[in-house]
Amino acid sequence: MGSPTFGTVLGKAEAPSGRNEPHHVFGAGGLLAVLKGQPDLLFFNVTDPMHPSFITSADPPQSAIPDEFVALPGGGFLVTMMGSATGGSPGRVVKINPNLTVQGEYPANPPLEFNPRGIAVDFKRRRMVTGDYLLPSSTLTPTNGPVLRTTFRVWDLDSMEIISTFNAGPVAAAGFMDARLLGDTGVVILGSGKGRVFGVNITNPTQIKVVHFVSNITNHCLAAPFANGTRTLATVFGLDLIQLNDSSDPWRFKEIKEFYLPAGSGPHYITLSPDERMAAVSTYFLDEDAAKGVVHAGGSRMVYLFDIDVRNDDFVPHPVVSYVDFKAATLGNSKIECGGWCPHGMAFKQL
After folding, report:
1. Residue range 228-256: mean pLDDT, rounded
2. How buried is residue 141: exposed, middle or buried, by Cβ count under 10 Å (0-12/13-18/19+)?
3. Structure pTM?
4. Which residues contact 176 (CB under 8 A, 6 or more apart)?
């Protein structure tokens, strides 16, 4: 953080595809690659973060519309694929080998309305949770509007089979976008899309409760729990809001602080630095081609940076660089503008 280049865009990696809405990190999922006949999954070498480089791509045969990545302990990834190979339903969870090839797509016989987006994996308890978000093809014209899902599912990690499904119903849920482990509590939290955050005990999946409620007018809450599970930062898209919550009781959150971004920002993805002294929030979700899609949530296309004061339960905009505006940023000292870039998924890399 004392670097003279802090807050500067220093490097980029070219990939053999384009304009396909790459989402999230570890790999990068070309969210709309299926519309262009491009590979769905892109992998990059970030050993030297100043000079990232493209490695290879993968294209699961039964699924498309990738979203969240989870790194596996022995190498490789689990990736949620919201749609079928044509962008319909059902989707899959894909397992990627350490050599970055597709090992399998799960479950073997998915439910018809299986459209996973959020994913949380507890390797100690050998359980996994996925949240169904929406039917991807319902966002493309012609359409009567997006078909949002109301279910989340608990899995046995060893068999890669679903062992429990919970349907919150349309009053309480409108697309489960996020799933996060809450420390070592055995509880996974999921944002419902209706301002509610659900908790589920993954060893006893019948124990389910709304652990936090913001407002019915919000779109989605995405969370970044601290490693010990006692505090959780969350974005609230529809209110341009970032919240710090006391989650020491995993079944009843308590609000500590609220911070509002400028109106129309659209805070989406949130992540913590490995030492939990900083947080980053991106303000771009998805803006489909006007002729092809109906989702237009481009936000302000910025990354906000916050300092975290754990002892005093506080977070504040970074005093040196509080945001990076990708609409105006340039690449290092060059004149290469980042104006076409839309920051979505992020990760800190400890140097």
Report:
1. 96
2. exposed
3. 0.92
4. 117, 118, 131, 132, 133, 149, 150, 151, 152, 190, 191, 192, 193, 198
